[in-house]
Each structure stands twice: as C-alpha cells, then as structure tokens.
Amino acid sequence: MTNNSCNTYIIAPASHEVTMPLQPAVLACVANDVSNVTGDGTAYTVICDYEHYDQNADYNTGTGIFTSPLTGIYLMFQQLGLNVFSGNNGYLKLITSNRNYYFCTRLFTNFVAPGVNYFSGYTLTDLDAGDTSTMQAVISGGAKSVDIKSNISTLRTYFNPKLVC
Amino acid sequence: MVTQNNVNASYTLGANRELANNAQPAFCAYNSSTDADQTGNGTLVTVDFDTEVFDQNADFAADTFTAPVTGRYYFVYQLELDDIAAANTSGNSFIVTSNRTFYHNYYDYGNCQTAAGIYAIQGNAQCDMDAADTSTIQVQINNGGADTVDVNGHATDMLTFYAGYLTV
After folding, report:
1. Least Cα separation, residue A149 to chain B (angstroms)
2. Cα A86 to the chain's mean position, in Å?
3. What single-letter DSSP state applies at residue A25?
4. Is the CB of residue B68 less than 8 Å away from at least one CB of chain A?
5. Structure confidence by residue, pLDDT tens digits, A71-123
6. Which residues of A touch B3 (CB under 8 A)?
7. Distance separating the N- and C-terminal Cα atoms of chain B
8. What is the count of residue pairs from A and B with beta carbons less than 8 Å apart?
9. B153: distance to nearest CA of chain A, Å?
10. Domain A26-163, CATH 1.10.287.3510 — does that match?
11. How far is CA B145 from the centre of its chain?
C-alpha cells in the first residue's frame, strides 16, 4: 500500500491480500531441553533461544524478553512442553509491564498422563512502547524435576507475540 | 494507501514502520472479583467481565461484545473455575455469537482440579459477525448436586478474561 523511501511495509498485490513484513511478529522456541527447572513451586522464566522469525527484532533470545516497539494491542500465544509427574499442579504465567495473566491452573497429571505434555495460553494485551513481556512456568506438587521440552522443527515450547492493532 | 481521516489520527507508524491502529475494534475485559456459586449442577451462566482493560471502539458493555461492522473477529477467553468437586464430572464453555455457538472444554472437571479446587480453561475462535451481532461467554458445569462452582476474579491479576478484535 504505502512505500516509503527505504522499506515496503504494507504489501497488497493485485489480488488485494495484505501482508506486513515489518510488523512486529515473533516466533521463538526453545532449542534444547532444560532440565529440572520447576516442580517444587519455582517460578521459571522460559527463554526461547531460537528464532524462526522476528520481523522487527523485538525479542531477546538471551533473556526471553519481548519488548514492545510501539504502543498497541498485541496477540500473545505461548506453549510449554513440560515433562510432568504425578501430583504436579500449577500454572503458566505471562508477565507484562501492565499486568499478569495466569493460564492452565490445574492438576496437570489428572488432566493428562504423566510424561511430556503441552500446555498453552493466549490473550490480547495492551503494551506501551518499551513495555516488556515474558513467560513463566510455576509448577508445584513435587520435586524440582520438571523439564522444559524442546524442538526447533516440531515446536514444543514457543512464544508467539505479534502487534495486531 | 493507508488513509487518515480529518477527525482522528487512528494509525500510529513507528520508527521501524510498525503500524498500530487505535481505532480498530479491540477489547479486553476481566472479572475483578470472584462470583460465587455460579454453576455446578447444570446451570448455564453468562460470565461476568466487569472491568475493561481496553476497549478501543467502545463495543463492549454488560459482558457483551457488539460488532460495530461486519467482518471476521477473533475471540479468546479464560475462565478460572473454583470449588470444583469430584462430582463435577462434565461441563462445557461456549462462545455464543448471534450466528452460531462454539463449544469448548468438555472435560471431567472433577478429576483435574488443584487441591484448592481450581481448574482454568481457555477457548478461542475466529467468528463471522454482522454489524450489531453480539457475543458472550457462557459456562455450564454439571452433576455437582448444587451450583457451588465459583468463577474467580481478581482486582489486578488476569484470571478470568475475555478479549477480541476485528481481524479482517
């Protein structure tokens, strides 16, 4: 649609589909399993250290922090692959500068069989420019033996924020 | 072109050509205090979302989103249910729109709650809505013998919330 002197930031071909290649959008995942991070109530901050895309370079693979470049509404999706044990309960948490979101609060191992399972949470959130967001796993009910599972081609643990309006 | 009308500068363009549209219909509302004994014995209840985080086009009121224009809307919700008992062996949650209803979360709730009786569920859907169509969130937990299941809320933390936006 509009083409500035440097970059085309909205593309609408003849058939009028619209893509926005400079719009903040991230898909980052955990590349290697991280062992024994929670299970005893420890709040573990998940760091997705491999990026499939990060259109505006807003996600830090060293810290696990997404920083909003622009005030707006962001669609946030997170999934954690967790190796859970009998008795594990807890929640996933999305921490933003403005507020915190709690997902999947439940007894995990009656919901699913013990072993590797997948838990997700999604929301719309308001972020001001410079605001941050991170995801945590807080699992209780056992020893600190819950692992974060990984794979970069069949994604198990990933973070997927994007600016929608 | 991206147009800007004479009244509102609705688009914000960032330094790296990010684009935000603060006039696009988008809302997020949550339950700020726990509503006790809402369901549990088959009562179908419309969930209370009494506090707005944002509502860019003023389309959300009285727990109901009303579409301002015809289009495709994405909705997502979470309900944190409390005082779930072993007898609550089934239930559902729903996105109810004028055109159709989306069913979610058919589980044995009484086998999945934390020791404190908490079980949180989510649902989402992409919905076609005409102008003035509405959407609400409903939940129905069964077999408890009485409606003793609460819908949790908190003044600041997002435990039970409903959000959506016009996508295309």
Report:
1. 22
2. 25
3. B
4. no
5. 999 999 999 999 999 999 999 999 999 999 999 999 988 777 788 999 999 99
6. none
7. 17
8. 128
9. 11
10. no
11. 27
Residue-range domains of chain B with CATH: 25-166 (2.60.120.40)
* pLDDT tens-place string over residues B102-136: 999 888 999 889 989 999 999 999 999 999 999 99
* Dist. CA A126–CA A18, nearest whole Å: 23
Q: What are phi and psi of A109, to 5 degrees?
A: -90, 5
Neighbours of A153 (CB within 10 A): 6
Strands A162-163, A72-84: parallel, antiparallel or unpaired by DSSP? antiparallel
Contact B113 A122 (CB under 8 A): no
Which band of pLDDT confidence, cut at 50, 70 and 90, is reported for residue A5?
A: very low
For the stretch B24-62, pLDDT in tens is: 999 999 999 999 999 999 999 999 999 999 999 999 999
On whether any CB of chain A is under 8 Å from the CB of B156, the answer is yes
Q: Touching check for B1 and chain A: CB below 8 Å?
A: yes
The span from the first CA to the last CA of chain A, in angstroms, equals 17
pLDDT bin (cut points 50, 70, 90) of residue A24 is: very high
Q: How far is CA B77 from CA B12, B27, B72, B92, in A?
A: 27, 11, 17, 13
Which of B114, B118, B168 would best serve as a mutation to test chain A binding (most A beta carbons within 10 A)? B114
Q: The complex's ipTM?
A: 0.90
* Distance between CA atoms of residues B156 and A121, nearest Å: 18
Q: Which residues, at least 6 apart from A147, have a Cβ–Cβ distance to it below 8 Å?
A: A33, A34, A35, A36, A37, A82, A83
Residues 6+ apart with CB under 8 A from A155: A29, A79
CA separation, residue A7 to residues A16, A19, A53 (Å):
19, 13, 18
